[in-house]
Structures are given as C-alpha cells and as structure tokens.
Amino acid sequence: MKRILIVTSNANKVKEFREMLEPLGYEVVSLRDLHDDEDVPEYGTTFAENAVIKAEHGMKKYGVPAVADDSGLCIDAFDGGPGVQSARFLGHDTPYSYKNQVILERLKGETNRGAQFHCAIAFAVPGAQTKVFEGILRGKIADEAKGNGGFGYDPIFWYPQYGKTGGELVPSEKNAVSHRGKAVRRFLEYFTEYSKTEKE
Ligand code: ITT
Q1: In total, how many domains does the chain have?
Q2: How confident is residue 194, by pLDDT bands cut at 50, 70 and 90?
Q3: Which of 5, 42, 57, 188 is the most buried (most CB within 10 A)?
Q4: How far from each other are the two terminal CA atoms of the chain, in whole angstroms?
Q5: Which structural domain, as residue segments, surrounds residue 70?
Q6: Mean pLDDT of 8-20
Q7: Which one of 6, 7, 13 would you pick to mutate in the ligand 1 pocket, going by the greatest count of ligand atoms within 8 A of its CB?
Q8: CATH number reported for the structural domain that contains residue 59 in this entry
C-alpha cells in the first residue's frame, strides 16, 4: 500500500482524505498519527501559498513526500472573506455553530448570497519543485444552518448539485462534488504517474 503523509491538524480533513484515498489503495498518515501537534504558521496570502508552506514544512521535517491542504470559504458579499482566514475567522477555537450564526446574521436581508469553497493541495517532494492542485465549488450561503454532516461551514453552505446544505450530505455525496474532492482527484492523477516513476 502506498503511504501519503498529510500535513494537517484538522481531523475532518484527514477523514475526507481517507474516505477518498483508502478505497484506491493508499494509506493516509496524518500528523496526529505521528503524535505531532505542531501548528504550522500560515503566512501566505493565497490558498496555494499556504498549502505550499505546510507541505514543504512537513516534507523537510520528515524527509518524505508530503501533502497539505489549505482551504476556506469565500463569500461574495464579504469581498471573498473569510477566505484564507476561514479557520481563524472570529477566533481559531470558536465553535462553528457560532461562526455560522454570525455569518447568517451579517447576511440577513442580503440578496447576494453567492459563495465558494476553495481548496489548494500542495505536494512537496525532497529535491523537486512543489506542485499545487486546486478545486473550487460554487454555491450559496443558505438562509439557515441545517444538518450535522461535513464540518466547519458545511451547515450553512448550500450545494447546488443537491439542493441541500453540506451538513445534510453523506460523505460520498460531498466528496463527489466538493472543492476538496476536485483537488484530490487532480492530485491523484499526478500522484499515480509519480508513483510509477518512483518505482523504476
Ligand atoms: P490545517 O491548517 O492544519 O490543515 P485548518 O483547519 O487550520 O487545518 P485551513 O487553514 O485550511 O485548515 O482552514 C480551513 C478552514 O476552512 C477549515 O477549518 C474550515 O473551517 C473551512 N473549510 C475548509 N474546507 C471545508 C469544507 O469542506 N467544509 C466546511 N468548511 C471547510
């Protein structure tokens, strides 16, 4: 089984990576599996920059190829915010039930409810140029929070493909259309070819 190190402290991201990659025969190893709770500082201004910072940090620390995900919610009426600040919006440890209610309050009466999830995945290999794979999912901010599925902003993000919030989706439905699903599939296409050359 091929191993993939994912440099993240977000257990929900690890779960989604596992759900998508394990059935394809990949073992996903997270920082938590390595008993590493270091929080890598994200000083980039784009999702891609932050993903590269995290992946290269893990690659250098462990001396193996490493993957990182930087993602977030961009709301049109907030000029794309919280964007790269999504995890830190209203405080890193503030519960998402509260963050989501604040967003709904701020959008009360707003007709422009367009929003998108963005995911950048970076793949860093010792001695090689780091690669980035991105995925975007356009949708809307729902009128109210619904469901307990997914994580983070999912209960208030309306997935147009299903006419439901992310909180109401089962994992396979979300992964089939999500920003992370798209970026993971782009990464996998590359990784499959990369793995073949590694063996030669
Ligand atoms: P790492 O940096 O350790 O990977 P993090 O949670 O801090 O973990 P980010 O900086 O990439 O990760 O922040 C992404 C935030 O965006 C995440 O915490 C969620 O709040 C939100 N987010 C990303 N993908 C999401 C998804 O699929 N569904 C709901 N919310 C999501």
Answers
A1: 1
A2: confident
A3: 5
A4: 17
A5: 2-199
A6: 94
A7: 13
A8: 3.90.950.10
Inter-residue contact 61 to 101 (CB < 8 Å): no
Encoded tokens for 147? 């469901």
Give phi and psi for 162, each to the nearest 5.
-115, -15
Confidence of residue 139 (pLDDT cuts 50, 70, 90): very high
CA distance 107 to 52: 32
What single DSSP character describes residue 22?
G
Answer whether residue 196 shows pLDDT above 90.
no
Contacts (Cβ under 8 Å, ≥6 apart) of 12:
150, 151, 152
- From the CA of 150, give the closest atom in ligand 1: 28
Token pair in block for residue 153? 């902003």
Residue 200 banded pLDDT, cuts 50, 70, 90: very low
What residue type is 94 in one-letter code?
T
- Tens of pLDDT, residues 49-104: 999 999 999 999 999 999 999 999 999 999 999 999 999 999 999 999 999 999 99
**Nearest CA, atom 2, ligand 1:** 8
Q: Is 153 in the pocket of ligand 1 (CB under 6 A)?
A: yes
- The closest residue, in CA terms, to atom 19 on ligand 1 is 152
- Ligand 1 centroid, distance to 25 Cα (angstroms): 25
